[in-house]
Write a structure and sequence with these properties.
Layout: H1 2-18, H2 25-31, H3 44-53, H4 59-67, E1 70-76, E2 79-86, H5 96-99
Antiparallel strand pairs: 1-2
Helix pairs in contact: 2-3
Amino acid sequence: MRLTAIAIMVGLAACSSDGGSHPYESQCTTSCMPDGVCAGMDAMPCVDECEAATDTVSSACAQCILDDTSWRETVGTGGTSCAGYAVGSASSSSCAASCQM
């Protein structure tokens, strides 16, 4: 019985150490939340790209990428429309200093 309890605790610890979530998951979800004319768009492709972009960078670089991630609107002769999302990049000029590129 005691060995079973220890095995369960070790198994839970192993699962919780990975957590199954990305360290910037909640921030990417917030940055990728469509609003305004983009409100009906699917946020998951943006979240996936954001998580990939922040996966192996420093926290300062990740923060810059998160700050540069958002949905874009475009104004044309027909009014305002959703132009899609843009995920920040470690190699962009706005993040070069934070990401030391």
